[in-house]
Every structure is written in C-alpha cells, then in structure tokens.
Design a protein that fits this description.
alpha+beta; nine-stranded antiparallel β-sheet; 8 helices
Length: 394
C-alpha cells in the first residue's frame, strides 16, 4: 500500500493550509504540517481511511478526510460519507439520557425496574434478542440497577450476553460497586426508556439530539439515504468486511453517522447547545475510578497504579481523565473494520475526533493524538492502542 494514498480534503470555510491549530500546551501547528504527518502515519501503518476534526475554542478548525471509503475501488472517503459509529453510540445516547434527566423524565438514581408496572422479564420481546430479559426471572440483583450505573458501566451486566459461556444474561456483581464495560447495561436503560415514554430510541434521538444538533445523516438503524455514500470496513490486509445493514436500534452500538455529523454533535456538546452547562458538568463528573491494566481481556481483571496520575475514571457515558489542562472526556468506538476515538478538554475548548474504516487505525492513534492536539494523557496502553512500530518489540 505504500505511496498509494491520495489526500482527499474537506476544508472548513476560511481554513487555509497555512492556518495554525493550537494544541493543549499552546504550541502551534499548521494544517499543511498535519496533512503531511497524517499521510505519513497512514502509509506506514497501512490505514485505509481516516477522518479527523480538531477543535479550538469549542469550534472545529480542521476537518479533513484521508484515504478511501473502499480501498479496492479507490473511492475517496469524504466528511459526508456514512461511517459505522460502533461504541460512539454510547456517548450520543448519554447526552439523550442527560437531556431527559434535565426534563424530569428520568432520575439517575431511581432503580430502572421501578419505572415499569411489571418485571422486565415478563414483557414479550419485540426484537430479535436485545429486549429478551427472561434470564433475569431468578436474578435478585438486576432490580437495583439505575440509569447512573448503566451510564457509568457499573450495572454488573457483562459487555454482551453472548460472551457468557451459556450466552445467558446475568448480573455478575452487586450493581454500583465495580467498573466493567457493558453494552448490555446501556441497552437495558434504552429498553426501559422506550417502555416508559412509548417512543423508540430512534424517535427520541431525532427529537432530542439529532435534529437540535443539525445531524441529518445519523441514525441508530440503516437508512436508504445512506446507500449513495457509505464506507466499508477494511481488514488489516485491505480486504473488505461486508456491510451490516440489518441492525436493530441499540443504544450501545448501532449508530450510523459521518464525520460531518459527529463534528456537529461534539460542537453541540462543547457549546452547550444540547445540555445546560451544569448538566454537561455532571455528565463529565467521575462516578468510579478505574485501576485495571487494560480495559478488556484478562488484564482487565488485574489492577495497576499506571493511570493514577490521570485519575482514570468513568463519568456518565464518557471515560474521563485529569490533566494539567483540565478534564479530558473521551469515547472509543471499535467494530469490525471501524476504529474511532474522540476526546475533548472542555476547559480548554480543545478536542479531536478520529474516525477510521480500517483495522489498522488504532496503531496510529497515540501518534495522532500527540500530533493533532498534543494529547499525551490518553491511556493508550489501557485502550490497547499499541503503536504499529512498537509491535515488533512486544
């Protein structure tokens, strides 16, 4: 793939190649310098497509796309191209939940079961699998789970029921006592919310988040309008994954979006267009400290002091770290052929969005964060963002 990359650029109005971008430490760089470095990293790590937005003073000052939406046909990736959002879904869902908390629809600390007139396991499932809670009939802990616990990943549910040896859903520890990343916790909150409001996740998102933020190319299910321009995920070798278009809407994992739209979302969060400042502050307040060596895998069960300097923790739907530049609020996305990372430092008005349709992308995230905004705080080892040039020595 070396030397095969063509730079495809989406330039914000009035932004020139010589314009300066300010990093966290107040050092400056230029759009041209970033273009060169990003292209270099992509070639060295064989990243097939990448979309980047940088924020200064809560405004996007650099928004560009590189590489391809389909490497085999050499069709360019654009800022308007549909991208599977993976777990970026969770950050967007968290904003919806906090909006409903503002409106008094939800209380973060009321057990979710108490919103329903009968036990969750008595409801007849309406989806292929995700609202089937029959496994919980004899579970004595699930009724303690609150919205706060679901958002902070302390619900006690596994990430997904299918990772369990018997593929049955269960609460694995007392809710509220331990961090353990869980898509199931967010989906449980979604299902209760849908029964409470009588509206689907998609309806609530369009009403409370997508429309107010101006996000016209985002949905939690595949839409016919995405057909004209969507990215395919790439394996490490450049082979294509088939596009999954039949997902049912799940709060934790099925967001379809674009760089344009996710930029609008992030800008709306930074500028308090969706939530009041006090609500945003609450969302970005630590709920539980994280001391695991890694986020996933066997090392997620082993503790370390390696991230004590950044007080690694989880807020409400977002990961959090502390830096000399204030709180960093971050969210990852990881699926077959799609790897994303976003982090914002609200007190500085600086942030970055990294979205890719390549299984190789995470191997340049550490360098991209340093290059774009001077972020040396993201716990890249905990995230398993092992740089491409470190692998030989591991």
């Amino acid at each position: 793939m070396k030397n095969l990359y063509i730079l495809f650029i989406t330039i914000l109005p009035l932004i020139t190649q010589g314009q300066t971008i300010t990093k966290l430490d107040s050092c400056k760089t230029t759009a041209a310098a970033l273009d060169q470095k990003i292209n270099q990293l992509m070639q060295q790590a064989q990243v097939h497509g990448l979309a980047v937005t940088i924020f200064n003073k809560n405004q996007p000052v650099y928004k560009k796309t590189f590489g391809y939406k389909n490497y085999q046909t050499k069709e360019p990736l654009k800022a308007s191209t549909n991208l599977y959002g993976a777990s970026l879904s969770k950050a967007v869902f968290a904003v919806l939940i906090m909006k409903l908390v503002e409106e008094g629809v939800l209380n973060l600390d009321k057990p979710l079961q108490r919103y329903l007139p009968k036990p969750i396991y008595e409801y007849v499932p309406q989806t292929k699998w995700h609202d089937n809670y029959s496994d919980l009939e004899n579970d004595s802990l699930y009724s303690q789970i609150t919205a706060r616990m679901a958002l902070a990943h302390t619900s006690g549910f596994p990430n997904w029921r299918w990772v369990e040896p018997d593929q049955k859903l269960r609460v694995k520890y007392k809710p509220g006592t331990k961090y353990s990343y869980s898509g199931e916790g967010l989906v449980y909150l979604q299902v209760v919310l849908e029964k409470l409001t009588g509206k689907t996740l998609e309806q609530l998102m369009q009403e409370k988040v997508f429309a107010p933020a101006g996000m016209k190319q985002s949905s939690y299910t595949w839409q016919p309008r995405f057909e004209k321009d969507y990215a395919l995920g790439h394996k490490t070798t450049g082979e294509l994954y088939p596009k999954d278009k039949d997902n049912e809407a799940r709060s934790a994992s099925t967001l379809e979006t674009s760089l344009d739209d996710y930029t609008l979302f992030t800008q709306a969060v930074l500028q308090h267009k969706l939530l009041k400042p006090a609500t945003t502050s609450q969302m970005f307040s630590p709920q539980i400290r994280i001391r695991s060596v890694k986020q996933f895998g066997p090392l997620s069960h082993r503790d370390t002091t390696a991230n004590d300097a950044i007080a690694l923790s989880y807020g409400l739907g977002w990961g959090l770290l502390q830096s000399p530049h204030g709180t960093g609020a971050f969210k990852e996305g990881h699926g077959d052929g799609f790897q994303h990372y976003t982090i914002i430092f609200p007190e500085k008005g600086i942030g970055v969005i990294l979205m890719s349709n390549s299984d190789n992308a995470e191997s340049i995230f550490k360098y991209l964060l340093e290059t774009t905004i001077g972020d040396t705080y993201t716990p890249w080892y905990w995230e398993n963002y092992i740089p491409y040039d470190h692998k030989a020595s591991r």
